[in-house]
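Subject: for your reference before the review

Hello V.,

The reviewers asked for a structural picture of the protein, and I figured it would be easier to keep everything in one thread rather than splitting it across files. Below is the amino acid sequence we used in the manuscript, unchanged from the supplementary table.
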Amino acid sequence: MLRMTQNDGELDSLVRKRIRALRVAQGWSLEELASRARLSQSTLSRIENGQRRLALDSLVTLARALDTTLDQLVETASDDVVVSPMIDAAHGLMRWPVKGDPGMSVVRQRMTEPPPDNPARMRAHPGREWLVVLSGTAILMLGHRRFRVETNQAAEFPTMLPHAIGAEGGPCEILGIFDRDARRGHQRPDACAGAGADAGAGAGAGDSGGDSSRA
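And here is what came back from the structure prediction:
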């Protein structure tokens, strides 16, 4: 919903800056965006420079041309920009919700143990996971394959493949991002919500890297 009012000068200025920033990010000139939005170049220039009133029809057209939505074009920053994590000290992990997509969550976990040797203890569930190793070296078991993930390397995989993750050669810290389905898989009563480390793979039971210290 469009929330701009005549007295909302800060939002007016923000929208103009946002239009220009999105155009520059695309590498487009004034002429190119004007052509895509079916506006004259002078009209677009005056919109960006604050010399022309922001009309609803122009904003709808510009939002479409910039591959965004009207809501995103006029949204304001929320007051709660900084979010504190929920801490699970027993499993050595922190969890942050993603406000823009309630189905997503971010988890940081410290692991000390290798992944389980027994394939029967690997977990599979719907969804996708993405993780990056913040420090140390992690071992990702994925189906019948074994991947070594070093510091600053990332991995992304479908969680319908049986998987488990643990540390190699000492503690490691990982940051994981889960979609809605993957998060549900980790929130089951028999699962730890660590990034890629399931209870079925040992996390939370001390078998695949759950650490009693905070991440």
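For the response letter, the relevant points are probably these. The beta strands are 86-88, 93-97, 105-111, 128-142, 145-149, 154-158, 163-178. Confidence is low (pLDDT under 50) at residues 1-7, 189-215.

Happy to draft the paragraph if you're swamped.

O.
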